[in-house]
Amino acid sequence: MIRTGDQYIAGLEAPREVYVGGERVEDVTKYPAFRRPLDSYARLYDLKHTAEFQDAMTYTENGDRFDLSYLVPTTHDQLRAKGLAYKTFSEASYGCLGRGPESMAALVAGLSVSADWFDQYEKDGGQKVTDYYNHVKDNDLFVTHALGNPQSDRSKPSHQQKNPYLHLRIKEKTSKGLIIRGAKQLATSAPFADEVLVFPNGRQFVPGDEAYCLCFSIPTTSPGLKLLCREPFVKEDNLNVYDQPLSSRYEEIDALLVFDDVLVPWDRVFFHSSKEAANNMRFMTAVASFAGHLSIQRAVVRSGLTVATAMALCDSVKTNVFPNVGEMLGRIAAMHKAAEALLYRAEEDPRVAEDGVYYLNADALTAHGLLFPDFYTAMLETIKRTGAAGLMLTPTSGEFRGEVADFANTYFAGAEGMPGEERVQVAKLAWDLAGGPIGQRLVHYERFYIGEPMFVASFFSRSVGLDDARQLLARLLEEGRKYLDEGFVSL
Ligand SMILES: Cc1cc2nc3c(=O)[nH]c(=O)nc-3n(C[C@H](O)[C@H](O)[C@H](O)COP(=O)(O)OP(=O)(O)OC[C@H]3O[C@@H](n4cnc5c(N)ncnc54)[C@H](O)[C@@H]3O)c2cc1C
């Protein structure tokens, strides 16, 4: 099924332990700081019911309709259709919602593809994963995920932390399931989600860490689960969309999850206590590939918007006539096109597995994840350097409707008769992207959403496909070796 926005919000009314600023949020659907983001997520659910977007965002199976994120593609056209769905989802939020419901739906589809892998580590592990996929898909649930341990002391493995229950671990095994205690981070969208999925992020567990090796999912309403949210950047729900076009609607809240003796029923334990499973899951299952598809589509949507905004900003005061400004704009446009090209390569040069499942080109996907944060940082820096004072001198919408409206429109005017309210609108968007707290969070998100970039890059250096280049290198070295004893020779 596909839920409507209202059905999604109604599901969140069930009691759960969400904390902001030390106080319990009694009803997440009514909390001012959550209301606008919640509306934005609800809109994504509603769009799946519209004539305009239904075909792009959903598919049918045995007479039922589902979010396309759940589809396991077995043709190239299906892989492309998923790409279009992610583009459509991303455009609906201007690429600002990285962890909307479709994001984890994609990841859970990746889990289901790898169901057999779980059988080697957990009795009926594969079946449990498949049942979970069907449960989430059939009920169109919103899942959040928390993979990392609290930062605490990164120089020590989990079992050597001062408090053995700081990192999430098994406290007890019972006939009903595992009792777990400790914390996991960082769960984006946790207060807006129905389920939390916990699995290892690829950091290597060492002997002694067995109790910390866990993969499971439970409802966010589970007794003992506490969601400790970071301070919201936008605390009220009355920001004007003219003034803060993105911040007013798209703040994804992040949370630390504390599991205070929480029961995970056996049917939701996908594996436990296995270092081998924990250390390999990220690399041996389809979760990263499936989730990555949405991520790179979203990144390209937002980078296009960001470059277009930078250009509009410069055009508004005609700084784009200067070659130095033109060069900066040209460079970030090239970065956007490079990101687009990697996305194209990922989708158009897929890998087809033995079971017929289509995967994105893994090298292009990882290259995108590793390069995009630097591209995006350069885009924001260009906005700041070219926008200069214009990014600060941005009055509110009130100035253009109040008693100084004429002055405001005259003196905030742009080039070629552009009224002040139009020029300021572009500058406000530019600042929301490049300077405001939401923009800063988004660039931080781009840096870290794939996991610690250092580990990803290091793994990439060992897995990247370079056969042609290596053969060329071998030929060149071979050629040179023939001349080892020759000294200088003319060819
Ligand atoms: C905005 C945002 C949203 C996020 N959303 C989610 C989410 O929804 N779900 C989720 O699970 N995670 C999420 N994350 C977490 C993200 O996956 C992590 O930030 C990322 O994996 C890096 O881990 P860390 O933050 O714990 O950094 P750390 O591991 O603490 O690293 C900090 C620094 O120390 C270095 N370092 C750490 N350990 C080592 C080591 N062993 N050897 C060498 N250097 C080391 C790192 O290179 C880095 O420079 C989010 C993060 C951000 C910023």
Give your account of this protein's structure.
- Helix content is about 45%, strand content about 15%.
- The model has no long low-confidence stretch (mean pLDDT about 95).
- Strand 6 and strand 7 (about 175-190) form a beta hairpin.
- With about 500 residues, it is an alpha+beta fold.
- It has 16 helices and 14 strands.
- It has two domains: about 5-285, Butyryl-CoA Dehydrogenase, subunit A, domain 2; about 285-465, Up-down Bundle (Butyryl-CoA Dehydrogenase, subunit A, domain 3), CATH 1.20.140.10.
- The chain has a six-stranded mixed β-sheet, with no helix packed on it.
- The radius of gyration is 25 Å and the shape is globular.
- Helix 5 (about 100-115) packs antiparallel against helix 7 and helix 5 runs antiparallel to helix 9 (about 285-315).
- The structure holds flavin-adenine dinucleotide.
Break the fold down into its secondary structure elements and pairings.
Layout: H1 5-11, E1 17-20, E2 23-25, H2 32-47, H3 54-57, E3 58-61, E4 64-67, H4 76-92, H5 101-113, H6 115-119, H7 125-139, E5 143-146, E6 169-173, E7 177-188, E8 195-198, E9 214-219, E10 225-229, E11 254-265, E12 269-272, H8 275-284, H9 287-316, H10 323-348, E13 351-352, E14 358-359, H11 362-387, H12 405-411, H13 420-434, H14 437-448, H15 453-463, H16 467-481
Parallel strand pairs: 1-10, 5-8
Antiparallel strand pairs: 1-2, 3-4, 6-7, 7-11, 8-9, 9-12, 10-11, 13-14
This protein binds flavin-adenine dinucleotide.
Flavin-adenine dinucleotide is lined by residues 99, 145-148, 151, 154, 186-188, 201, 254, 441, 444-445, 448-449, 451-452, 454.
